[in-house]
């Protein structure tokens, strides 16, 4: 048993009862636990305490008597009665609670008949007791008949039973208290460890419980809020209607969960949380307060917003991909025919300016398509190791033409800048879009700064950068001294078609394009802006591991005349004709096929010696890639250049975006085609 007899019984009260019993009956008594501790004692006789138990020669008789009593009690005897060698009688009754022997009740140091005085005179002489004092102590020992003793033992038995019941009641009380304490501790542990905020309000709507989650979320400890009203601790929650909802809960009304934004006064942290409330009832079903559960859903909201943004971009990307093929085919024809026509006339011809405008419009249209594909991350790109400092320097002249004379362009390149891997044309797009954005933000002039540096991001620093992961990056910073942006504008600047510019002054694709390019290349972008203090875009691009040298970016500006036979396979009549004209202008002999099957048949004819196959990727009946596999079974050494106006995901499904394969994106001009063909002929595949 976990409790001692002294914990289960009211010992002082029991002592009073036994004292009264001695006064009435003259029978001494004592309660002694199993460890020998005397809990109560009434009527102890001097003949034992001052003579028999303090003299070694007689103490042994007392010890023998004690042992006989103990043995009898251990044998589960209801009563044990003995007469010791010194002539005194003792009895004992076990005290048992719930079947467990916890203590003994002793009655004794009495005579069952008047004592033989002569015997005690002899005992005084034999053991050296002072006779007068010894005989006086003998005279004080009560003389009880056996019948009276039996009656006393019956009373003791009833008293023992009563004590056992009292002890059992006390034991049950202890057990209930222990269960309640353990239950309360478990509840407190559950509340403390819960991964959501748990709040309890009393009828006066004052805080009664404030768990650890709420402390971590708000920065307020329980000591700071308990006993306060919600509006006293958090004035900003009034706009969420918290007090009104609590009153409805106390009235027994069911209230739905809500989500609301917050900004904490202690930490300054802002975000979103969800709040659920229910009535707190007592055992009688009466509402005595309210229980609230709170969750910080800021991260979930951010994820939801990112998903919404991704779905929006995906939808626009699907739209762009759906029209890209036909649109780029038409642009190929427009751009090609205008360029071929210009090759037939001189600059002073009356049609030269018109053709020049047609070419410029077609080129601009192709850039719009490319912007759509860039932010939807479906643009066909050719990543390569590049030096950002070199590309920025090459783009300087273009940027100076874009910005006003009142805007100063300042470049701060870091020496020994790490290399990154991306398509150089995409770097141009990033710089141009950010420069135009900064120009429009500084109508009265200012400074446009472009800076590069090597940075290492630790896990801790990534906590403060959106979309960041630890690693080594090249940081490209484009800053202006314009009017800046308020926070509500910054939240939307990377969304497609979002613009603050007037009608006809912006498409809303510039920053969305930058965002798409950066994410497509494994990087991330953060914006820092304050109204009246300008804006800074910081772009982080992953560093290339190893010592890979940056490749020189060759711009397609010259027409390369070639020789040999080219098999052109294209299902669109107009694209086929303009591409054929390009190839013939470049000096190639051209064989034309409208379908993949026709292309295979031309290659199978022994009289046709073919050096290069220029084919569309996706055509009715058979893909360009499947056709090439058939042709290479006939002509293993033939070179292949693929072309397409489709987006990268559709082209990849056709199996052509692989290492070692050559690809040209529609629309293209004659100079770009000439360089691609030359690269294909010079390759080792």
From TrEMBL:
<dbReference type="Pfam" id="PF00512">
    <property type="entry name" value="HisKA"/>
</dbReference>
<dbReference type="GO" id="GO:0000155">
    <property type="term" value="F:phosphorelay sensor kinase activity"/>
</dbReference>
<feature type="domain" description="Histidine kinase">
    <location>
        <begin position="322"/>
        <end position="545"/>
    </location>
</feature>
<dbReference type="InterPro" id="IPR011006">
    <property type="entry name" value="CheY-like_superfamily"/>
</dbReference>
<feature type="domain" description="PAC">
    <location>
        <begin position="256"/>
        <end position="309"/>
    </location>
</feature>
<dbReference type="InterPro" id="IPR036890">
    <property type="entry name" value="HATPase_C_sf"/>
</dbReference>
<dbReference type="InterPro" id="IPR003661">
    <property type="entry name" value="HisK_dim/P_dom"/>
</dbReference>
<dbReference type="InterPro" id="IPR001789">
    <property type="entry name" value="Sig_transdc_resp-reg_receiver"/>
</dbReference>
<dbReference type="Pfam" id="PF00072">
    <property type="entry name" value="Response_reg"/>
</dbReference>
<dbReference type="InterPro" id="IPR004358">
    <property type="entry name" value="Sig_transdc_His_kin-like_C"/>
</dbReference>
<dbReference type="InterPro" id="IPR013656">
    <property type="entry name" value="PAS_4"/>
</dbReference>
<protein>
    <recommendedName>
        <fullName>histidine kinase</fullName>
        <ecNumber>2.7.13.3</ecNumber>
    </recommendedName>
</protein>
<feature type="modified residue" description="4-aspartylphosphate">
    <location>
        <position position="616"/>
    </location>
</feature>
<dbReference type="InterPro" id="IPR000700">
    <property type="entry name" value="PAS-assoc_C"/>
</dbReference>
<dbReference type="InterPro" id="IPR036097">
    <property type="entry name" value="HisK_dim/P_sf"/>
</dbReference>
<dbReference type="InterPro" id="IPR035965">
    <property type="entry name" value="PAS-like_dom_sf"/>
</dbReference>
<feature type="domain" description="PAS">
    <location>
        <begin position="183"/>
        <end position="253"/>
    </location>
</feature>
<dbReference type="InterPro" id="IPR000014">
    <property type="entry name" value="PAS"/>
</dbReference>
<dbReference type="InterPro" id="IPR018771">
    <property type="entry name" value="PocR_dom"/>
</dbReference>
<dbReference type="InterPro" id="IPR003594">
    <property type="entry name" value="HATPase_dom"/>
</dbReference>
<dbReference type="InterPro" id="IPR005467">
    <property type="entry name" value="His_kinase_dom"/>
</dbReference>
<dbReference type="Pfam" id="PF02518">
    <property type="entry name" value="HATPase_c"/>
</dbReference>
<dbReference type="Pfam" id="PF10114">
    <property type="entry name" value="PocR"/>
</dbReference>
<feature type="domain" description="Response regulatory">
    <location>
        <begin position="565"/>
        <end position="681"/>
    </location>
</feature>
<keyword id="KW-0597">Phosphoprotein</keyword>
<dbReference type="Pfam" id="PF08448">
    <property type="entry name" value="PAS_4"/>
</dbReference>
């Amino acid at each position: 048993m976990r409790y001692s007899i002294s914990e289960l019984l009211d010992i002082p009260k029991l002592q009073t009862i036994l004292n009264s019993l001695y006064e009435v009956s003259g029978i001494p008594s004592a309660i002694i636990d199993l460890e020998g501790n005397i809990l109560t004692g009434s009527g102890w006789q001097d003949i034992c305490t001052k003579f028999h138990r303090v003299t070694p020669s007689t103490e042994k008789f007392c010890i023998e008597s004690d042992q006989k009593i103990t043995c009898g009690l251990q044998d589960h005897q209801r009563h044990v009665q003995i007469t010791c060698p010194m002539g005194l009688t003792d009895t004992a009754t076990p005290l048992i609670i719930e079947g467990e022997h916890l203590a003994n009740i002793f009655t004794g140091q009495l005579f069952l008949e008047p004592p033989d005085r002569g015997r005690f005179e002899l005992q005084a002489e034999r053991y050296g007791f002072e006779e007068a004092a010894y005989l006086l102590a003998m005279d004080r020992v009560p003389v009880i008949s056996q019948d009276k003793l039996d009656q006393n033992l019956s009373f003791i038995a009833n008293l023992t039973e009563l004590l056992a019941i009292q002890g059992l009641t006390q034991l049950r009380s202890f057990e209930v208290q222990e269960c309640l304490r353990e239950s309360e501790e478990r509840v407190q542990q559950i509340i403390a460890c819960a991964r959501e905020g748990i709040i309890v309000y009393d009828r006066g709507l004052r805080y009664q419980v404030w768990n650890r989650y709420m402390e971590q979320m708000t920065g307020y400890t329980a000591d700071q809020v308990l006993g306060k009203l919600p509006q006293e601790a958090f004035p900003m929650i009034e706009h969420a209607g918290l007090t009104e909802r609590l009153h409805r809960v106390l009235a027994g009304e069911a209230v739905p969960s809500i989500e609301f934004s917050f900004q904490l006064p202690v930490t300054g942290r802002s975000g979103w949380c969800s709040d659920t409330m229910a009535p707190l009832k007592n055992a009688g079903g009466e509402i005595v307060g309210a229980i609230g559960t709170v969750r910080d859903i800021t991260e979930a909201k951010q994820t939801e917003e990112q998903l919404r943004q991704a779905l929006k971009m995906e939808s626009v990307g699907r739209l762009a991909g759906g029209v890209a093929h036909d649109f780029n085919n038409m642009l190929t024809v427009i751009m090609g025919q205008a360029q071929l026509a210009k090759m037939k006339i001189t600059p002073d011809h009356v049609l030269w300016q018109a053709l020049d405008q047609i070419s410029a419009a077609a080129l601009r249209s192709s850039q719009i398509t490319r912007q759509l594909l860039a932010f939807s991350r479906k643009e066909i790109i050719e990543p390569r190791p590049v030096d950002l400092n070199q590309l920025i320097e090459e783009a300087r002249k273009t940027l100076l033409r874009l910005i006003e004379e009142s805007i100063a362009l300042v470049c701060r390149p870091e020496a020994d800048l790490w290399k990154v891997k991306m398509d150089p044309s995409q770097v141009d797009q990033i710089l141009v879009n950010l420069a135009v954005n900064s120009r429009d933000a500084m109508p009265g002039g200012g400074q446009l700064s472009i800076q590069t540096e090597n940075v290492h991001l630790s896990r801790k620093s990534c906590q403060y950068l959106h979309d960041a992961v630890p690693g080594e990056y090249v940081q490209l910073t484009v800053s202006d001294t314009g009017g800046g942006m308020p926070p509500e504008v910054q939240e939307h600047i990377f969304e497609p078609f979002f613009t603050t510019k007037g009608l006809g002054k912006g498409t809303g694709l510039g920053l969305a394009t930058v965002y798409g390019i950066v994410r497509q290349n494994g990087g991330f972008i953060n914006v820092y802006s304050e109204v009246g203090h300008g804006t800074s875009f910081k772009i982080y691009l992953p560093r290339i591991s190893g010592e890979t040298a940056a490749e020189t970016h060759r711009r397609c500006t010259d027409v390369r005349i070639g020789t040999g036979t080219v098999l052109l396979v294209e299902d669109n009549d107009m694209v086929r004709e303009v591409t054929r004209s390009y190839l013939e202008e470049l000096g190639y002999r051209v064989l034309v096929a409208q379908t993949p099957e026709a292309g295979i048949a031309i290659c199978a004819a022994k009289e046709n010696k073919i050096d290069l196959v220029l084919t569309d990727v996706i055509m009715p009946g058979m893909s360009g890639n499947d056709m090439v596999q058939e042709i290479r079974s006939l002509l293993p050494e033939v070179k292949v250049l693929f072309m397409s106006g489709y987006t990268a995901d559709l082209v990849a499904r056709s199996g052509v975006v692989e290492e070692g394969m050559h690809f040209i994106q529609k629309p293209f001009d004659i100079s770009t085609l000439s360089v691609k063909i030359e690269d294909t002929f010079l390759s080792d595949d």
